[in-house]
Amino acid sequence: MERIIKNINNVWIEFQNNVIDHIPKLILAILVILIFALIANTIKNLCLRIYKKVFKNHYLNIERILASTFYVLFFALGIFLALNILGLEKPLEKLLAGAGIVGIVAGFAFKDIASNMFSGLLVDLQRPYNIGDWVEIDGNYGVVVDISWLTTKVKTVPGQEVFIPNQIIYNGTFTNYSTWGKRRIILRSGVSYGDDLERVKSVAMDEVKKIEELLPEEGIDFYFTAIGDSTYNFMLRYWVQFNSNDDYCKGMNAVIIRIKKRFEQEGISIAYPVTTLDFGVKGGVNLFDKEINIKS
Q1: Is the pTM of this model over 0.85?
Q2: 11 and 78, same domain (yes or no)
Q3: Which of 29, 35, 62, 230 could be 274's S-S partner, Cβ–Cβ 3.0 to 4.6 Å?
Q4: For the chain, what is the domain count?
């Protein structure tokens, strides 16, 4: 009995000594955690202020993600130092090793989601387009109606809403038609072989100058581009103001109507495919100039 009591006393004394020895370490560990928590909170608020000053327009709340990331990193650093002070670094190493394996497995499983989220972060930072811009992404042409962490929602001209993964934006090419507030129209057509080409050019450019949507300071270009099978092909280029796709369509529509009417007044023919039948040995025979005798 005395031996049992003696062992209990020894255990109690050893426990008291260990507690007394670890109290300073425990207090120091708590102070380290509090100090790093204060630093983490300060850095978080600083990140929010800097981000809002640099990026005034933000849709994804990326500033909160970045600030929270810095907060977690500094707070975790304080916890690691505190555990090291208490001598618990070995269990921590095993825990981190297990977390690393889990992280690798999760990385493979969620790589596409992570890629889209990172691309969403780049979209928010770089700002290649904004809500309301007319864009063409991965063959989808329309207006941007929403930008999220994973996708960009585009409302196409036919009226469908298309959700485009953000990683596609940086894996390929895309076009933002709203960047300059203007857009170039390229109209292609052709006239017949019998028309005066100088007159065709003068009439076409004169009609373009009369439309309301035209930006005259950008200039008008007219070029004959090829001698086709039955036409002289030409290209007419001009700039119009662009706030929506309707501006582009109106600029194209107005010129087509004007050129068609003016060409009719000037006797200019908008050519269509013509096939020549060669009934003679040289040059062919005009069916209306010479009677054709068919022998039975």
Answers
A1: no
A2: yes
A3: 230
A4: 3
Q: Quick one: average pLDDT of 43-49?
A: 75
Q: Is residue 261 part of a domain?
A: yes
SS3 per residue for 144-157:
EEEECCCEEEEEEC
Q: Which residues pair with 155 in a beta bridge?
A: 143, 161
Residue found by looking up tokens 């990326």 in the block: 62
Which residue has tokens 């100039």?
289
Q: Which residues are CB-contacts of 247 (< 8 A; sequence separation ≥ 6)?
A: 183, 213, 240, 241
Which residues fall within 8 angstroms of residue 261, CB to CB, at 6 or more apart?
none
CA 129 to chain CA centroid, Å, is 6
The string of pLDDT tens digits covering residues 213-252 is 999 999 999 999 999 888 999 999 999 999 999 999 999 9
Last residue of a domain, one of 121, 149, 176: 176
Kindly state the tokens that stand for 205: 């450019």
Burial class (CB within 10 angstroms; exposed 0-12, middle 13-18, buried 19+) of 195:
buried
Instruction: Compute the distance between CA of residue 268 and CA of residue 89 in angstroms, rounded to an integer.
Output: 90
Could you tell me the maximum CA-CA distance found in the chain, to the nearest angstrom?
145
Same domain, 105 and 137: no
| Count of CB atoms situated within 10 Å of the CB of 247 | 17
List pLDDT tens digits, range 270-289: 877 666 555 554 555 555 55
The per-residue pLDDT for 281 is 47
